[in-house]
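Render this sequence as a predicted structure.
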Amino acid sequence: MARLKGHRHSKVCADAPPGYASCHAEIDDEIAGPLAVGQLVPPGYGPADLQSAYKLPSLTAGTGRTVAVVDPYDAPTAETDLGIYRTEFGQTPCSGCFRKVDQAGGNSLPGADAGWAQEASLDVQMVSAACPNCNILLVEASSNSLTDLGAAVNTAVNLGASAVSMSFGGPESSGITRYDAEYFNHPGIPLVASSGDNGYTNATAPPTVNYPASSPNVVAAGGTTLNLDTSKVRGWTERAWGATGSGAAGPGSGCSAYEPKPAWQHDTGCPNRTVADLASVADPSTGVAVYDSTPSNGMSGWMVFGGTSAAAPVIAATYALAGPPPAGTSPAQLAYGSPWALNDVANGANGTCTIPYLCTAGYGYDGPTGLGTAQGLTAFTASSPPSFSDIPGSYPFYTEVTWMAYNAITTGYPDGTFRPVQPVTREAMAAFLYRLRGSPAYVPPAISPFKDIGPLSPFYKEITWLATTGITTGYPDGTYRPSDAVNRDAMAAFLYRLAGKPAYTQPGVSPFTDLTPVSPFYLEITWLASTGITTGYADGTFRPLNPVNRDAMAAFMYRYNARIGR
């Protein structure tokens, strides 16, 4: 799907007062109706796109599990619309997989609301997109009050939900902790709530972060802009949805004014609970396809939606695909223990704030996207990370080294060590860069381009691939010097060339005290600094001739992937 640039978007639901919830769906105002003559697929991302972007085993997992969708009011055409959606995208007919009940679990459905019906179609169809084998339970609350919605959540769990999608929220108020105990306290059941679409908010002044996303018992869903990019190993790139301007749309983020920080959340900018935890596509400019035949504001048929209302059901369905968490484990806690198994989103912002990570995507945890987006199911299960005997969980670069191992970029040494403070050799660096790019198909030459290595040399294929791509040129004497250590200036050059030599104007004043504009590799080093892949040392130096240790190399590669993409 091409990015729908320039289209107008609007909120499906108006903001709600305290004690009530609004939906968090954003609709593309310029797309609605039947498919045009000759149009093969609806606009917007479909199931195959989401499954590809988030590496979901949707075709083989999820059988026997139920994802509950909780929304207020009746969506009269939800089941019929789901059938049309599944048929259009080649999913098997939903024979007996859909059930709709009122908030008490009965058949006394509430009155219809066209706007909330659009929300329900979005939610139900996103569950189907991510987990087509799952059963879907739509629980319709009598109203959009948190009391009614909370009762519907209780009913969903009592009826056997494996996970619950809650694409709604309202402003925090002093009484919300009561709701935690009465409605949003279901250990072992992932309750996933959208974080809102108003961008970063300050806990000390309205508008506040959204509840129930701010509940410590809930997984808060942030949002991204998702774009197809076949030049990358993943095939996709993501950034935080939103902008830095005041009042710009984007996923909700910030500090709770009332909810305590859960034990598994360790960011330092909020003394209380921080929103969000995880993210998925939410930008309506890269939105998802939805079919809804209940007219609202003159729009029906095939439409494109975004908002964190799109993210919550995808994340809830991902939890359902993964299966139940271990007893006594918070579902959100699982991801915090496995950040190395997620797509870390390190670009974009959803507002302006004094503590940058609360509104700006960066390495590791941030407000707009939390820990990142799904990369398969590992972060949604009680997983055992790939480990090295000399990299304990407390090691400063534990996440980065484990990420490299998880993605098969490093295997460590045969004795089970990683040897983090050992310098990286040039031959090992060639292997790391080759694997970072996904081990592309390549036939090495029969005659070596370097006089000190041959076809039987270790890492010959990887080194010659590096030369073929122009990432390395070797030395002027025709050697490669495979056993030499890689210096920090050469590492900068390697990564700059791996990124395709992006357009960049080097600064007139060096950001490092030991470099000047005439230093070797000055452009490459300052480019690396401009991306945040390197910050240099605390004393303001870069130390270009120092060898790169293996743990620092892991950090460089992790950040390169998060910022540039493999």
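Summary. The two ends are 21 Å apart (CA to CA). The mean pLDDT is 95.
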